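Risk mitigation, structural track. In case the binding assays with zinc ion fail to produce interpretable data, a predicted complex structure has been prepared as a fallback.
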Amino acid sequence: METPSPLVDRFVRYCRVDTQADPESVSVPSTEKQKDLGRLLVEELRAIGVGGATMDEFGYVTARLAGKPAPGGGGGSTGPASKTRIALFAHMDTAPDAPGDGVIPVIHPSWDGSVIQLPGDPSVTIDPARNPALHAHVGEDLITSDGRTLLGSDDKAGVAIMMQLASEWSDLPGPLPDTVLCFTIDEEIGRGVDHLDLASLGADVGYTLDGSGIDSLNFETFNAAAARVDIHGVAVHPGYAKGVMVNALRLLAELIQMLPADEAPETTEGREGYFHPHTVGSAGADKASLQIIIRDFSHDGLEARKELLRGAVATLAARHPRARVELQIEDNYKNMRSYIEEADPRAVSFALAAGEEMGITLKSELIRGGTDGARLSELGLPTPNIFNGGHDYHSCFEWNTVQSLERAHRYVQRLLGYWARHG
Ligand SMILES: [Zn+2]
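Fallback model:
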């Protein structure tokens, strides 16, 4: 392979910076080292000549790229064609699930499809049998870690694409919309936008560049609720318990049995929802508590699940009148699709149309987990998630390809152009 393109060069450099988040930490960002990358990005943005690139006290880095009109087109120099201001987001932190320090990215040029033993730990292999998605990338230039660490494509790929965009902005032909770049912290531990000053971004529509694979678009997440059941039994000496003891733990087990076993995370996929009893607390014969999360893609489906749980708790209480059973249910978040449709459905339709323009049909993939975009959409900024080429996130098997990175980069350019012409 020839010298890596500027995009790949950036990607590899950013992957080497340890930015692993720490769920046990209460500081913001959770690890100070996330700011190491933040400082590097600010330095590079300033060197490129992007005025106003800054990192705030929490570590969020923002930079503004001024929109521009179509070259020589009608309206000429009156400003960008689009009134819609776009925000792009990528998170600088990496996941705590695999080692994240001392990352050594390895490029495997023109990969022939055979199993790769990674040089830093030969027991770690890149194997199409384990990940069939690899089959579509034979002949491409694969990028992995050396096997001892994660790669950090999640989400250094998004970071690199946004930085590359900034560096070429002045040479890109218009029209382009006013665009704000926002590099975030602690996405991997669910705190990605907790301290973000969303209003100051001044954006109308956002995109996170944090989706795995190629040609994927995510704009649907679960509707989520959490339930807590407290069971108060009657404890006495077991030797003299007949007809007196009410064992809270047995009631708790009975309740779990009443939840449909085929509606569990381990038995569902795609659009199927579930009940997930996950934590038993203050367990004892006299007192036990149970926490359950409830997930469903539709609003009505979530309500039906809550109703089923209420019914089960009522049945349990009726069977055991001397026990006291309490149920609390709270809603956690809504399917981001509902927020996007309310705020600006073009966030999705334009993303699809921009794909069609470059001859790709984006696949809409459901997210059976969380994303910063879901939270941003809920806060009023409709923010679908778009692909960045990466695979096997949060592990030493993580990989991307030069061609996928470049494809994602071209797509983002096209998306911005589309907004400028139609927004
Ligand atoms: Zn990510």
